[in-house]
Model the fold of this input.
Amino acid sequence: MDATVRVVAAPPQRPRRGWRLAAFVRDRAAVAASVLLGLVVLASIAAPWLSAHGPYEADNLLRYAPPGTPGHLLGTDQQGRDEVARLLWGGRVSLMVGIVPTLCASAIGLALGMLAGMLSGFVDQVIMRTLDVLFAFPIVLFAIAFAGAMTPGIGTEILAITVVLIPYVGRLARTATLGVMAMPFIEAARAAGGSPLAIARRYVFPNVLSPIIVYATTLMGLMIVVGSGLSFLGLGVQPPTADWGAMVADGRVVLRRAPHVTIIPGIAILAVSLAFNFIGDGLRDALDPRTGRRAG
Amino acid sequence: MSRFLLSRLLAVIPVMFGVSVVVFLLMQIAPGDVATALLGPQATEQAKQELRHTLGLDKPLPVQYGRWLARTGEGDLGVSIATQRPVASLVLPRFLNTLLLTVASLFLAILIGYPTGLFAALRAQTVFDRSTTGLTLLLGSTPPFWLGLILVLLFALRLRWLPVSGMYDMAGDGGLADLLRHLILPAVTTALGPAAIITRMVRSSVREALAKPHVRVARAKGLARRTLLRRHVILNALPPVVTITGLQLGYLLGGALLTEVVFDWPGLGSLLYDSITARDLPVVQGTTLLVGLCFVLVNIIVDMLNVVLDPRLQEG
Done:
């Protein structure tokens, strides 16, 4: 959240796009992470073409096959289902659970934060005090309780994570909006007769957007982990649908006999979450040139 | 200062009120009918109507909330649907176990994070510093439930040093040594993520403090390194570190919920998990309320501690 402070002080001039891209490309970790993430996304989309087996296709004669078994590169689980196939199909669900709620929460949080920051007074108080209350719950507890109170399923999981994230994005958006509103160019726009809506669209939104993008990228990494935790608890997708968290839960039962069933999906979660973090770091440096390379 | 602290304490009341509203509403959105859940699917419509009337479920929501709040205030959290026991009597012993796990994890996270962060800051850009940074990034992205299973695989199943799950051995004497052996893996699992975050925070605030002009002056003056660190660097670096540690306590409380399921630790997390599986909503409600209120309290204590450490914050 140190991005808040930096962004508030960011100069309001129109960003030079080419320059920003150059800064991102110079960050080797961020580029490598983007490539990795791109490959994972593509592989998940292309799951039906990439894997020789279906995700539910069980080979009863080949249960607990270790990685390297011919025809099953990463082995099979306790039902004889191919790990590669489940990993690829599971990626669809896991990525969706990490990305979709973050996007939804970012949009809603951005709108609420800008509203609170621009209107101040009563509206600000109502929005922020409400968000404060949601803020009062540990993120995992609220997601568990919310998902637990409803019927389990992917919709519930996405909704639970969205609700949990809104206060986080909302707070950041409000702080950033307040920073922009204090800038002289806002006063100038007002003096020139700009309507609040026009000011919001032309001046506030573009300036508030970049910290939200950076924050949302990091959040996606975190939510891949939180979402897989909900699936691990059985609050998300239901069996036999594959999902990386649910796959870890499957493996837990056969941890002694076939540890690869647990280990492999966990590495996938870890790698994707890490990739989002590196991309977030790279974006932060690229979108706010004044911070330069990470100083700390 | 005491007036300031009092005002902060009073500010908790609306938040706690809000927390109670959210927990109450959470149970309202739950699908399924309480009367059917209590009486079973064979119950007649009339019996269900009567039960709804006795429970006050036919009253408008604000009235229901008011009654619920009044009862909760008296310590009556309702009756568990699955076990027919008062929720309070189920939740409290579990709460102590969760507290034990959380405090042990916090202790561990501090024990790892503070010295590592300090050392990394003092040896900036060395191999130690770089590998610490890399490791903290890695741990920050590791799913804790998965980490727990990997630790079980290594230390319990393969090396057989530690027990797989539970709090005491069935055949054991139930003594402190047995408890500690069972505590190690869950505590490490819960602590590593927060330890990584604390390490990073300690490192960056110590580096920031080291760069302050008064530290340079003190150094130029020839102040002994030890005194310099103690009096000028650590004291200055402390407030953000305390804040982040406090935030981690909340995170630990949430993380412990998941760890408990992995290790069958008999705390609130496994209770919450079991009651969600059994759709025992009164227990879910009681647990959520209790953890939520604890989180609010922890945050306010951290806030106050910060003001004590850095009186300048009072003006803000």
Notes: Chain A touches chain B through 44 residues (CB under 8 Å). Chain A is about 70% helix and 0% strand. Residues 1-13, 291-296 of chain A have pLDDT under 50 and may be disordered. Residues 39-295 of chain A form a domain with the MetI-like fold fold (CATH 1.10.3720.10).
